[in-house]
Amino acid sequence: MKFYDKYPQLKEKGFLAQVLTKTVFSTMSLENQQVPMPKVEEIVLSLLKEQELKGGHFFSNQSR
């Protein structure tokens, strides 16, 4: 079974961005690196956008 078959919701850009943002924010907080949540969201979205432009078919449903 492929990873995306087991977790199809990770193909949704919004869900993936939310999971990554929360994970990065909480990890940084545990390491006493205080970065505001909006800044983390901005970085995550910019990285996802960059991957989207490089890959072409990174997400199953493109919502723009």
Question: Can you describe this structure?
Answer:
This protein is an all-alpha fold and 64 residues long. The chain is 64% helix and 0% strand. The chain is built from three helices and no strands. It has helices at 3-6, 13-30, 37-55. The mean pLDDT is 85.
Protein traits:
64 residues; 64% helix
Structure summary:
Helix content is 64%, strand content 0%. It is an all-alpha fold and 64 residues long.
**Number of helical stretches of at least 4 residues:** 3
Radius of gyration, taken over Cα atoms and rounded to an integer in Å = 13 Å
Main sheet characteristics: none
Low-pLDDT residue intervals, each spanning 5 or more residues: none
Number of strands: 0
List the helices and strands and how they pair.
Elements: H1 3-6, H2 13-30, H3 37-55
Helix pairs in contact: 2-3
